[in-house]
Write a structure and sequence with these properties.
Chain lengths: 290, 400
């Protein structure tokens, strides 16, 4: 998908020389991602993985023309790293960290307003465009090039959906994790619009979970604006009220937060809904044949 | 993380929010002494547990004499209070808050939430105080006033005045309301709370605003930079299994079924519970081992799940991304051996190093039930549980 990660994307990693940054930059390079360098404050001027290291994102952008950044800074430092990337004019900012204080993200979102930056995450496995590259922590070997777009809050459930699709011979145009936090940079509707506009995508699967209004808002947007089939699954049918189910954002605060309420509303809006998580692949196949 | 009412009131007092004179005590004798010290003619004795609905459950009582304070405190301390949030087993009351009672003229609701749609802190208020705000929001949504706060400038005076005016706090009460709202906001912002509410905020006899009850929830992810808040944590109010899990870097939530679950990733863990439910089974827990799980972490997960006596078997569902199936399998074997597990174990492995993982399991002497995918795993787990239940059912009959 050309909006977020395509063959022209020039990628940097923030937190490049750390353990996680190093491992996932190497993995990204292995599958052909155009990584042009990285940022680690204090290590500017050195080389890492055969690529230049910069002290600031601004310098990295000026020198390499980077437009995508994978942020591997730990949660206490992530908000500052994101705002540095926004300030430097990075277009797509992928935030892996799980555990960023929610008020930090409130401030980050305020800072982002009025800029052209898109934040994917936090608490996301990232973005992968099979055959082109990835910025994230997902196991790239399970994905294959194809024409189905995936957008999910959960990482492992994204992998589960991919595995079910692979069994049926279906590949992916791109897969985007918007993350499991209550305040995230990009909502489902924004990603659906990108897939709707993408000539390489035929259908989209949206994998949501309990908590918050995003899934239903996205389905409402899709009913009005999407011509491609949208398949929806919402995890947490059996989740108790008022408990945070692992993800900071996965909590039922009122009736409209439940998986059943969300799925029922999506069905009423005419979407292809999946009630049993084992039926994701089969439902995608049914949707594209219809 | 939640804290007690008396802790919330102590915090709010520092931010200029008026609260009734009072103190927390652990014995009936202390309760009487405190009532005498704070003075007045009527007092209220309030059970301190992390739960709403304490009043309805008999945990909040008004007393007309010092003797009555002593009697009521004696009655409440040490009892198991059952509210709609504690479950049937109730929660042990270890301490009570003794406060001067006020004559209430009218009650309001003031709260701050992080609104997911606007991605901002939002002030919520209502003239319907002292009742559940969720109920008001559902039945009379027009009675709820909202004001979105720009984090760049914070909650502004005029916004407070707007909200106060709209819920009917006018005249001499207006400046008091501004002070309460700004204090509540600063307390939330400075301490990384994710929710703060005063319910009810009351007008009392002498035309003063007073926070009669207050609740705050803090961001677990920000506790690293809030040592004073972290100190307020009361482990007695939490499930010991959940506390142990957190210590091991695991995410565990106890549920009321019999199929123990060990899964990686919050989304897949929820989906696994859903699949079990759709096959007619009941999950005993939510458990996410997280990413990069070592064999020790997996073994710890078994230890926590097995503390629940209702668990009849365990379903392991792993889709390894940054995890490794061989580490997971090693952890499973370690747990089986060290914890002498005899119940059925259903294992579904997929993703990174899956062949190595499967090889480790099949080379062991343990009779794992191997599942090929999510559906298969849930179906096999539920079939096994039904087998076990059917086997023990006749025994139960003989006893009855």
């Amino acid at each position: 998908m050309s909006v977020l990660l395509n063959k022209d994307s020039r990628v940097i990693f923030q937190g490049f020389t750390g353990q996680h940054g190093t491992f996932h930059a190497e993995e990204a390079i292995k599958i052909g991602t155009k990584v042009v360098g990285g940022v680690t404050p204090g290590k500017g001027g050195t080389q890492h993985l055969g690529l230049p290291v910069f002290d600031t994102v601004e310098e990295a952008v000026r020198t390499t023309g980077a437009d995508v950044s994978g942020i591997f800074a730990p949660p206490p430092f992530a908000a500052d790293a994101i705002m540095e990337a926004i300030d430097a004019g990075i277009k797509t900012i992928v935030v892996i960290a799980d555990g960023i204080p929610v008020q930090d993200m409130v401030r980050v979102e305020r800072y982002r307003q009025g800029t052209n930056s898109i934040i994917i995450g936090p608490n996301t496995p990232g973005i992968i465009t099979p055959g082109v590259g990835k910025v994230g922590i997902m196991p790239s070997h399970i994905y294959s090039p194809g024409r189905i777009g995936i957008v999910s809050r959960s990482g492992t459930l994204n992998y589960e959906a991919v595995a079910q699709m692979s069994e049926l011979g279906l590949g992916q145009s791109s897969s985007i994790g918007i993350g499991g936090d209550p305040v995230n940079g990009t909502d489902f509707a924004t990603v659906l619009k990108a897939f709707e506009d993408d000539p390489d995508t035929d259908a989209v699967i949206m994998i949501g979970e309990i908590g918050g209004p995003q899934e239903v808002d996205a389905a409402r947007w899709a009913k009005k604006n999407m011509r491609k089939p949208l398949i929806c699954y919402v995890a947490g049918l059996s989740a108790p009220v008022g408990r945070r189910m692992g993800h900071a954002g996965a909590i039922i605060s009122n009736e409209s937060d439940t998986a059943t309420a969300k799925i029922d509303m999506m069905e009423a809006l005419g979407m292809f809904v999946v009630r049993n998580p084992a039926d994701i692949g089969a439902t995608v196949l049914r949707a594209i044949k219809s | 993380m939640n804290i007690h009412e008396y802790q919330t009131k102590d915090l709010l007092k520092h931010y200029g929010v008026p609260v009734p004179p009072g103190r927390v005590v652990h014995t009936d004798a202390q309760a009487a002494t405190v009532a005498e010290e704070i003075g007045g003619t009527r007092w209220v004795v309030k059970a301190q547990i992390h739960s709403g609905g304490r009043g309805k459950a008999g945990g909040v009582r008004v007393c007309n004499s010092i003797d009555e304070v002593r009697v009521i405190a004696n009655e409440i301390i040490g009892t198991l209070l059952v509210t709609h949030q504690t479950g049937a087993e109730g929660r042990l009351v270890r301490r009570v808050l003794v406060e001067q009672a006020s004559t209430i003229v009218s009650e309001y609701y003031i709260g701050l939430i992080i609104d997911r749609a606007t991605r901002r802190i939002t002030l919520v208020a209502s003239a319907e105080g002292g009742v559940d705000i969720e109920v008001v929001a559902k039945e009379t949504p027009d009675k709820i006033i909202r004001e979105v706060i720009d984090p760049a400038v914070g909650l502004l005076d005029f916004q407070c005045r707007k909200v106060a005016y709209n819920v009917g706090l006018t005249g001499a009460l207006l400046p008091q309301a501004v002070k309460v709202m700004k204090g509540l906001y600063r307390c939330m912002r400075d301490n990384d709370a994710i929710m703060a509410e005063i319910n009810p905020l009351a007008i009392v006899d002498n035309d003063q605003l007073l926070a009669l009850d207050a609740k705050m929830t803090f961001d677990d992810n920000a506790l690293y930079r809030r040592p004073k808040i972290t100190e307020l944590r009361d482990f007695d109010e939490e499930d010991p299994k959940e506390v142990e899990a957190t210590g091991h870097g695991l995410n565990y939530i106890a549920l009321d079924g019999d199929v123990g679950c060990i899964v990686n990733g919050a989304g897949l863990a929820m989906a696994t519970m859903d699949a079990i439910t759709l096959h007619g089974g009941r999950p005993a827990n939510f458990l996410d081992v997280g990413g990069g799980a070592t064999p020790e972490k997996v073994a710890n997960a078994f230890h926590i799940v097995l503390q629940d006596p209702a668990v009849k078997l365990i379903l392991i569902n792993i889709f390894a991304g940054i995890n490794r199936c061989d580490w997971i399998a090693t952890g499973i074997i370690q747990a089986m051996r060290d914890q002498s597990i005899t119940m059925p174990i259903i294992v579904r492995l997929a993703g990174t190093n899956v062949e190595e993982g499967r090889a480790i399991l099949s080379a062991s002497k343990f009779p794992f039930i191997v599942a090929s995918n999510l559906n298969d795993a849930a179906a096999k787990a539920v079939a096994e549980v039904n087998n076990i239940v059917n086997k023990v059912a006749p025994l139960k009959k003989e006893h009855s």
